Amino acid sequence: MRRTLLALSIALLPLSFAQAASHEHDHSHEEHGSLGAHEHGVASLNVALDGQTLEIQLESPAMNLVGFEHAASSDADKAKVAAARAQLEQPASLFNLPAAAGCTLAAMELHSPLFGKPAHEHTEAEHEHSHEHADVDADYRFDCNAPQHLTAIDLAVFFQQFPATEKLNAQLIGPSGQQGAELNKGNARLSF
Hints:
Elements: H1 2-11, H2 13-22, E1 42-50, E2 53-61, H3 62-66, H4 75-88, H5 91-94, E3 103-111, H6 124-132, E4 135-144, E5 152-154, H7 156-161, E6 167-174, E7 177-183, E8 189-191
Parallel strand pairs: 1-6
Antiparallel strand pairs: 1-2, 2-4, 3-4, 5-8, 6-7
């Protein structure tokens, strides 16, 4: 599933380095456009259409999706994590794809320290950093029967479900090449 998204990451690497060189890590709410920084209110979305396979990768600070980044210990925090995870497990409702494209979910992977034990052991430094900056990564693969009808992805519901997400830095590889877009509540449509 990550093959095409890996290609997207490699193709956009020069852009990421150029932006990273001009911006330092910022934990404030200022908008600065860096694709790699952990910035509350900002998430990244990578989308790749390869033949009949559509891959979507979302990377977001947990703050945008659940309202905090610490381990959920209270019942209220556990409920917020469970609700966010349940929403992320329904990508067809978050990423409104044209029905004519006939896309069905083929695979999904969700990763976050908030969702439970990590898949590998962390060093002490990684463990401390993960408590300061917990992220949520979601990878989806759709099989589309008629990809020629996949002209746009409407993310209005995503912004409604996760209102603390103010901006999505989107990168797209599709039939007409690669492009970048900055999406928000008022501009929630990613066109191929």
